[in-house]
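agent> step 3/5: call structure_predict on target 'Hsp20 family protein' (Collinsella ihumii).
agent> reason: downstream docking stage needs a structural representation; sequence fetched in step 2, passing through unchanged.
tool.input:
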Amino acid sequence: MASMVPYRSVFGLRPTTSLFDAFDDMMDLASTPLASKAFPIDVEDTGDGYEVKAYLTGVNKDDIDVELNEGRLSISVKVEDKEEDKGKNYLQKEFTSYSATRGVYLKDAACEGLSARYADGILTVTVPKIVEKSNVTKIAID
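tool.output (status=ok):
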């Protein structure tokens, strides 16, 4: 039976008493720490543009970078652990400095009229679509 108190050795594994415990440890290692640093995004086609939402709970606005380059929208986050660890006796410390980038290709994204807002841990980027102008001019016949 698995212990109720999580135990991790220097190598991140606990002493296993069954095959199920070993499998649980492998799944824990597969999901941390790199995979847990990515943030989820939603992309919605609104008809005349796109609305991209990135869920960035606990991130400061100044740690976020958003750019559109030839149709590729990139959202980058760089968070630094600025807390001094001297004299502290952590039993468990999971917060560390990290960076993550997510991107999505929006084939008909316009470079003008972009906007972004960050509130309650959610970054919302609005990207208008390119309005195709017709180069055809109707000529009246006299």
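agent> step 4/5: record observation. The chain has two domains: 1-31, 39-128.
agent> proceeding.
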